[in-house]
Amino acid sequence: MRVFDLVKTPLRELNSALHTIARGRNDTNFEVVNPRGSHAVAVGIDQPVTVDVRGSVGYYCAGMNDGGTITVHGSAGPGVAQNMMSGTVIIEGDASQYAGATGRGGLLVIKGNAASRCGISMKGIDIVVHGNIGHMSAFMGQSGHLVVLGDAGDALGDSLYEAKLFVRGTVKSLGADCIEKEMRPEHLQKLAELLEKADVKDVRPEEFKRYGSARKLYNFNIDNADAY
Length: 228
Fold this sequence. Notes:
Number of helices: 2
Number of strands: 11
Order of helices and strands: EHEEEEEEEEEHE
Distance between the termini: 52 Å
Helix content: under 10%
Mean pLDDT: 94
C-alpha cells in the first residue's frame, strides 16, 4: 500500500501517482492521510485502484472516476463524484451539494446526509443515500437511480427525464413533472440489488415509494405552461 500524507506531500503528487500506474501492476492500493479538506482529491482515476482517504475532503473529490473504489472516511464538500463514469465512491459521513452531478455510471454511496441538488443531471449513475437529501435533488435526472433511506427536500425530481427515484421517508414536495409511480416487481428487484451493493441492512424495498417523470415537459406544450 502506498501512503500519501498531504501535510508532507503536495496533492498534485498523489493525483499524478494515481494517473501513471502501469497497466497490470498490482500496487493499486492507496491511503491518503491528513487530507484536511483538500480539494480535488483522487480525481480522474481511470483504473481499478483502491483509495482510502482518512479524513474529510473539500470540493470535487473523486471527480470523473472511471473504475476506482474511493472511500472517504469523513465528509465531502460540494461536487463529490461529479461526472463519474464507473467504479464506486463511498462517503462515510455527509456530502455537500450536488453530489454525483452529471454522473454517467458507477455507484455513489453516502452514509450520512446529502445537501441540495444531489444527483443533478444524473446520466446513469446510481446513488444511495443512507440519510436525508436536500432540495432540488435529481433535477433534470436523465437516467440511473437515486435511493434515499431518509427524507427528501423541496422540488424532488424537478424537470425529471427517465431517472428512477426511490424514497423511504417523506418528500417535502415534488418538482415540475415529477409524480409518484407504481412500484412494480422489477423495481423492487433493482432496489434490492442497490441496497445490497450499498451495504444497507434491515431495510426492505417494500418500504420505499417510487417517483418518476410524468413525461409532460419533454416538449413545450401550452397546456403545461404553468409547470415551467
